[in-house]
Amino acid sequence: METAEKKILNCATTDPNKILPMKYKWARKHYQSGVANNWTPDEVNMQKDVETWKSTSVLSDDERRLIMWNMGFFSTAESLTANNLVLTIYKHITNPECRQYLLRQAYEEAVHTDTFIYCCDTLGLDPDDVYTMYDRVPSIKHKDEFVVNMTKSLSDPNFSTNGTENIQRFVHDLVGFYVIMEGIFFYAGFVMMLSFLRQNKMVGVGEQFQFILRDESVHLAFGTDLINTIVEENPEIWTEQFKTTITENIKHGVELESAYAHDCLPTGILGLNADTIDEYLKYVADRRLERINLEKVYGAENPFPWMSEIIDLRKEKNFFETRVTEYKNAGSLKW
Question: Is 118 marked active-site?
Fold first, then answer.
């Protein structure tokens, strides 16, 4: 009977240290997927990237700028994500199987942070240039500020999830953290950096972004399952007004990521242009909305079907044929 008493929030009847028997099997599945996808940045050969970066003829100025901007955004965004997980979300979600996954995700965020340390060290980038970009580039700053403001309840030391209004606020912030930050704000950057890989440029950096994308796909799957389960256990929070608020937040997230894409791509490069990325962001946003049981907004098509193939391959020769990678158990993710 213990299993039936488990809840995600506000459940004092179960011991957070007693993981068995499990009620939320999806949390365990996502944990196992994360373990199966395990990687570290120093496994990736960066020699060709060093040669490309030092060359004066391989990369254009626009391509170098695009790489630096994505390094700048992701390097600080991964730290912001890890801090939210460790300092706030873990505290409020006391269910043990969900906490096990959160610990796994926190480890992966540490690996992602280490990735940008590794890239800076290997390519000889100025860390002050990379790690202050969130403060110098308006479109990056606006994204970071939006997420910080949208998840401010989580950072309030006096916040609790007791009561309908607070549970609603918690879900609101989880949507900002998982659906908008990890599910939308990262995706223009993923398309840009993986397009380098498709062109056989900066293949080491591109391969690491590919691995980060696979991790983020599992983070997003866990986050949306978490949100949906909290709503299922607390249906009173899912009002029409609240659903409208969430939808509008996601639409604003698309606008901010679109502005970032236009800044990164003032002219078309690598077969990309900002308008095509806009279409992709709208397609992604529709999938995110549907995943948390909201109506899609845009009706957009996917202009980059190869992005889905990267996530869904189970045992692969690296999609862009840079090296052979084995995944023990990586299941397909369908959005």
Answer: yes
